[in-house]
Amino acid sequence: MIKASHISKIYQKDSVETVALSDVSFEVKKAEFVAIMGPSGSGKSTLMHILGALDLPTSGTYILDGEKVGNLSDDELADIRNRKIGFIFQAFNLLPRISALENVMLPMSYAQVPKGERLEKAKKLLGQVGLGDRISHTSSQLSGGQQQRVAIARGLSMNPSILLADEPTGNIATAQAEEIMQIFENLNREGHTIIMITHEPEIARHAKRTITIRDGNIVEDSNNQKQKRIKKN
Ligand SMILES: Nc1ncnc2c1ncn2[C@@H]1O[C@H](COP(=O)(O)OP(=O)(O)O)[C@@H](O)[C@H]1O
Ligand SMILES: [Mg+2]
To answer: Ligand 2 centre and the CA of 43: distance in Å?
Structure first.
């Protein structure tokens, strides 16, 4: 699904060079659920931007669902993002004045999905994240956890190849964060590929695999399954 090979990212600002990622390589297969962990400044957001085709690496190659993401125009990158990636952000990024239903329909409107189809799809997705009875609410009428669930439904609306979440529980109370992680676990069980960035071990443990980065390098890549099994017994 994802193949990142020797990815480096160097930011150049005036005469100062910052190496944000240094020769990072990894693969993510279909239906994996991966947490990317690391301290502040370790390169997590930089990696997320590259994986999300929001930015290009300085060197290295990135293949997303069979397509090479490199040497592409802004329009081509936007097209790849729309077709292949469902983004979930820390700050939800919902439009405040329109309903949950309209927020979920928005990406489908941009893609000119017929009205009846997008209405049906949006209702189904909101039901799936437990908001079937809140579809007419606007952001201010929803809790943080509920807003993030709307954002997840929106992220799924275009049937993306991967869900990419950057600190999805960063602005959410603990109990609601747990609900968001249950939704991610359920989606993953249904076959969705999820990559989630977090600095919280309690959140990362919901993933099946954890990649830890530090100073722009992968320092650990571990399977979480064994740990979970021990906890259950
Ligand atoms: N646009 C930018 N210009 C210059 N330096 C940047 C830019 N974005 C990030 N950096 C630097 O790259 C490093 C990694 O940053 P980032 O990917 O945001 O880390 P994290 O998300 O793990 O906190 C940091 O040293 C940061 O200061
Ligand atoms: Mg960051």
So the answer is: 7
CA angle 36, 38, 39 (to 5 degrees): 150
Total-model pTM: 0.93
Q: What mean pLDDT do residues 127-139 have? A: 97
Q: Report whether residue 11 contacts ligand 1, using a CB cutoff of 6 Å.
A: yes
CB 148 within 8 A of CB 156: no
How many Å lie between the centroid of ligand 1 and the Cα of residue 114?
40
Reported as a single tens digit per residue, the pLDDT across 94-128 is 999 999 999 999 999 999 999 999 999 999 999 99
Residue nearest to atom 26 of ligand 1 (CA): 41
Strand-strand pairing, 162-166 and 85-88: parallel
Residue to mutate, 12, 13, 46, ligand 1, most ligand atoms under 8 Å from C-beta = 46
What would the DSSP string read from start to end of 213-230? EETTEEEEEEE-HHHHHH
Q: Which of left, alpha, beta for 6 (phi over 0: left; psi -120 to 50: alpha)?
A: left
3-state class (DSSP) for residue 86:
strand
Ordered by start, the domain boundaries in the chain are: 2-232
Which of 9, 14, 18 gets mutated to test ligand 1 (max ligand atoms within 8 A of its CB)? 18
| CATH level 3 topology of 2-232 | Rossmann fold (3.40.50)
Task: Name every residue whose Cβ is closer than 8 Å to that of residue 175 and which is 6 or more positions away in sequence.
Answer: 145
